[in-house]
Structures are given as C-alpha cells and as structure tokens.
Amino acid sequence: MSLYTSHQPSQTLALYGDCVASLRTSLAYLESAVTTLGATPSTEEGAPAGAVADMPRFANVVKTVRHYELVPQPTLAAAEASLQNEIGPAVAGLLDRASHQLARQSRRIDTLQARAALQAGRLEEPAERPANSRQAPKRTGASSASSDLRARMIHQRKEQLKYSVARLEREVAQKERELRQRLRQSMAG
Predict the structure, then answer these.
(1) 147, 123 in Cβ contact below 8 A?
(2) Domain locations along the chain
(3) pTM to 2 decimals?
(4) pLDDT by residue (tens digit) across 155-187?
(5) Distance of alpha carbon 44 from the chain centroid
(6) CA dihedral sign, ordered 112, 113, 118, 121
(7) Which residue stretches belong to region Disordered (predicted)?
(8) Direct distance between the N- and C-terminal alpha carbons of the chain, in angstroms, rounded to an integer
(9) Residue 30: C-alpha distances to residues 16, 42, 67, 71, 189 (Å)
(10) Which ranges constitute the DSSP H helices of the chain?
C-alpha cells in the first residue's frame, strides 16, 4: 500500500507540482542528451578519437538509476518525534552517568592532590626540624597549608565512610528482607 493512496491524482499533482515540473525538465534534458549521442558520427566518419573513447564512460554515467521518494512533512515530523522518544531517555541516562563519573573523578583527583601535598609536607618537615630537637615545630605557611590539606582529606574520607556505611545498611536491610521471605516460605511450605 502506498503512502499516497489517500490522495486523488489531481491533489498529488497540486501538492508536488514543483517537483513534477523539475522532473519533466530533467527528462527533457536527458532526452536531448540521448538524441545528441545518437547523432554523433562514428569514427569512420571522422569523429575525434577522444569523443569515441569517452562514450562507454558516459554511457555508464547515464545508465545509473537513482530513485528518490518524496515523503510528506507530517510523516517526517512524526518519525523525528518517535526517534526522540526512543533515543532521548537513553541519551539522558548516558549524560547522567557521565556527569556522575566526572564528579567522582574530580573528587578522586582532589583526594590525590591533597595526599600528594601532605606527603610533600611530610618530606619537608624533617629537613626543617633540628636533628635532636623534641620541640614542637613552628607553624609556617607550608605547615598551615598542610593542615588545611589534612582537613580536606579527613573531610573527604568522612564523606566516603558515610557513603560506605549507607551502602552497607542497605545491603543489611536487603539481606534481612531475603531472610524473612525465606522464613515465610519455609513456614508456609
């Protein structure tokens, strides 16, 4: 069944009048080219050799048939909306996953930078202290920055532990539900 069965022939011509006129013009040019080729003198009649040599190639170009189907705008809009409805949620999910992964990687980078700065501060501290001195080290700009980094690391570690505890609590609750369900099944059966 064709897409255009609901239209009368006159309506189809009215809707696609420009396309039909363009196709007719193209057909006229093609017929003119075929007539010109049919009237080309052969090599025996003194035609240039280049014209005859190009004839098979030109025949292959003319033989190529391409079919283009005209689709109404409402059909295209409906197909586009359908694709958006099918693909949109998947794309949104992928973007959400990517943003979560980027946030996680950002936190990881911050943690590693803080740890590197802390280790660098620890490496510098013995060089600043006298060898046999048991006095408290003096507060300097580097040690202040080091303590800030330690505080950030502790805060990040605290957040990680909170997340781990929440995950473990969810797992325990799930196991309890499973055990209760098994107990009910064994008592019922």
Answers:
(1) no
(2) 9-70, 75-188
(3) 0.31
(4) 888 888 888 888 899 889 888 888 888 888 888
(5) 62
(6) positive
(7) 120-156
(8) 59
(9) 21, 21, 16, 25, 84
(10) 9-15, 17-38, 49-63, 73-128, 141-188
